[in-house]
Every structure is written in structure tokens, then in C-alpha cells.
């Protein structure tokens, strides 16, 4: 449960315990606490910017309530599917998620599914929902990677670089958990300002796939705990990162060529009562409703 993690080149040393505290005889892990903190911060940020896309805060919280469990389930399914040899003889272990074993790309797939399901249910613009959710994903990933640090996992191969990480006195390794946390942190700010200049719905989500995919291609190649496709030696997340990067980049170029000016401001019908759905941007507004507009050129309120 306890690990000593050092950064000798930086003169820093930590003694880490995976268990934060015990509640009614059940261990509560730092990993879960950190993941929850990421979800909460992401939900707060998205609720502050929901109106920019014609959504209410209730829309955001409802979508998060659906997306969190679906994301965790898909993250577990993704991990188990590519680690089947570890579970095929002990199927009950599949459900013991507290023993570890989730994959971020599975979580992203779950988040996308939740956006599609909720968007269709509430008749909201799915591409606009994706644009809003993209930055929330980066917040969650940036914070969540520090759960890997506490667990002394998701590290890379040997290195002698000044920022090398030494776990329990072993050889220095790449702190790939930090590489990805830093990459997603920078990506959040890139997308935050890019969103003000978007030209078409869905562009910011494609930007997320491009940014994260490009970084993950290289970071995944350093890791020692990658999931592989059968016995091929091909890293599944690295291939997926490369594919999403190339496809999303091509779609962005195509979309921006087709939309040479900024996206038309979203028309928002302000609900009169809590919980009332916002009309989709594509739906005509009733004559009795006075829509408010948001111009992407205006300063965002944070």
C-alpha cells in the first residue's frame, strides 16, 4: 500500500499511501478522491460556460450524472477487453474495480456516448455539447493523472533525465503521468481560447481529439504498462491516439475551409422554470419568446 517516490534530480522525496482513510471498515483510496475532485471541478467549469452554447446549468449537471457512471463502466470494459488473460479465469474480478484497472480512452468513449444519449433525449445540439464537454474532459484528465502518482503507476521506461522518478529505490523512470497531466493542462487553455474563435459546431471537440491524440501518441510509447492488441506488440491506445489525431485534424481543416467566418451565435431561449429544457439552436423560436444571443467575439465571463 505504501511507496517511496523520489525525484533525486530535483531533491524531492515522498512517502505515499494509496489509502486516504478508512470509513466503516472500508478503505477509501486517494485515487478515487482525486478522480472525484476532477469531476467536480470539470462540472463547475462547464456549468459556468453552458450558456455560451445555449444550455442551462441543469443540462450540464444532468449530463454529468449520466456521463460519470457510464464513463467509469466504459473505462473498465476497455481495460478488461485488452487484459482478458488476467480475467478470463476469474470473472468475478471484473467487477472489483477498486483493485485497479481503468483506461482513459474507455472513459472518453463513455463520455461521448452520454453526450449522444442525453442530447437526443433533450433534443439538444450534440456537436455543441461535445464542444462544451471537451474542456471538461481535459480538466478531469489533468487532475486524474495525479491519482496514478499516488499509486506509483502509469510511469515510463528507464531514464537518467534530471526529472526522473525513482519508485522504492529502483531505477529512475519517465514520470509519464506528469507528462500527460501537463499536456492536458496546456490543452485546456488552448481550447478555452480557441472556443472563442470556433467556426463550426463540433470544432472544439475535434480540437480535443487532435491535441490529446498527438500527445498521447508519444507518451504512450514511453509507458511500461500499455494495453496491447493480442500478441501483436501494438499498443492499442497509441494506435487509437494516432487515428483520432489524423482523422480529427483532417475534419478540422475541412470544416474551417467550409466555414470561413465565425460560427453563428447560438440562439438561447431562457427557461422560465428550473429544469425546463432549452430549445435547440436549430429550432425556430416562438414569436412570443425573446431570444438572447451570445457572440463568440464577446468576452467570456468566468
Can you count the beta strands?
Answer: 7
Strand content is 5-15%
The SSE order reads: EEEEHHHHEHHHEE
Mean pLDDT: 87
What proportion of the residues is helical, as a percent range? Answer: 40-55%
Strands side by side in the biggest sheet: 2-1-5
Radius of gyration: 21 Å
Instruction: Give unreliable regions as ranges.
Output: 267-302
Class inferred from helices and paired strands: mainly alpha
Largest sheet: 3 strands, antiparallel
Helical stretch count? 7
* Gap from first CA to last CA: 40 Å
Shape: globular
Explain what this protein looks like in three dimensions:
The chain has seven helices and seven strands, in the order E-E-E-E-H-H-H-H-E-H-H-H-E-E. Helix 2 (57-81) packs antiparallel against helix 3. The protein has a three-stranded antiparallel sheet, with no helix packed on it. The protein has helices spanning 30-49, 57-81, 104-122, 126-150, 176-194, 203-222, 236-258; strands spanning 2-7, 12-17, 19-23, 26-29, 166-167, 267-268, 292-293. The radius of gyration is 21 Å and the shape is globular. The protein has 302 residues and is mainly α.
Amino acid at each position: 500500500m505504501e511507496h517511496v517516490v523520489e525525484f533525486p534530480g530535483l531533491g524531492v522525496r515522498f512517502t505515499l499511501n494509496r489509502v486516504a482513510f478508512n470509513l466503516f471498515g472500508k478503505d477509501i483510496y486517494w485515487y478515487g478522491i482525486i478522480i472525484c475532485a476532477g469531476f467536480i471541478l470539470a462540472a463547475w467549469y462547464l456549468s459556468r460556460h453552458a450558456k455560451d452554447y445555449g444550455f442551462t446549468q441543469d443540462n450540464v449537471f444532468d449530463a454529468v450524472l449520466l456521463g460519470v457512471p457510464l464513463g467509469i463502466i466504459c473505462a473498465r470494459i476497455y481495460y478488461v477487453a485488452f487484459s482478458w488473460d488476467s480475467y478470463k479465469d476469474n470473472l468475478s474480478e471484473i467487477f472489483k474495480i477498486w483493485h485497479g484497472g481503468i483506461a482513459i480512452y474507455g472513459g472518453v468513449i463513455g463520455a461521448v456516448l452520454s453526450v449522444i444519449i442525453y442530447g437526443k433525449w433533450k433534443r439538444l445540439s450534440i456537436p455543441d455539447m461535445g464542444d462544451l464537454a471537451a474542456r471538461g474532459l481535459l480538466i478531469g484528465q489533468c487532475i486524474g493523472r495525479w491519482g496514478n502518482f499516488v499509486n506509483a503507476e502509469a510511469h515510463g521506461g528507464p531514464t537518467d533525465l534530471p526529472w526522473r522518478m525513482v519508485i522504492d529505490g529502483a531505477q529512475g523512470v519517465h514520470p509519464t503521468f506528469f507528462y500527460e497531466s501537463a499536456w492536458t493542462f496546456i490543452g485546456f487553455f488552448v481550447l478555452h481560447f480557441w472556443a472563442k474563435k470556433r467556426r463550426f459546431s463540433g470544432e472544439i471537440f475535434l480540437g480535443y481529439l487532435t491535441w490529446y491524440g498527438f500527445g498521447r501518441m508519444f507518451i504512450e510509447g514511453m509507458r511500461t504498462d500499455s494495453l496491447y492488441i493480442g500478441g501483436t506488440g501494438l499498443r492499442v491506445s497509441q494506435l487509437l491516439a494516432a487515428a483520432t489525431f489524423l482523422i480529427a485534424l483532417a475534419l478540422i481543416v475541412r470544416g474551417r475551409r467550409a466555414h470561413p467566418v465565425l460560427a453563428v451565435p447560438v440562439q438561447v431561449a431562457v427557461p422560465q422554470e428550473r429544469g425546463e429544457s432549452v430549445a435547440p439552436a436549430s429550432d425556430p423560436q416562438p414569436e412570443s419568446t425573446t431570444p438572447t444571443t451570445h457572440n463568440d467575439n464577446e468576452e467570456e465571463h468566468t
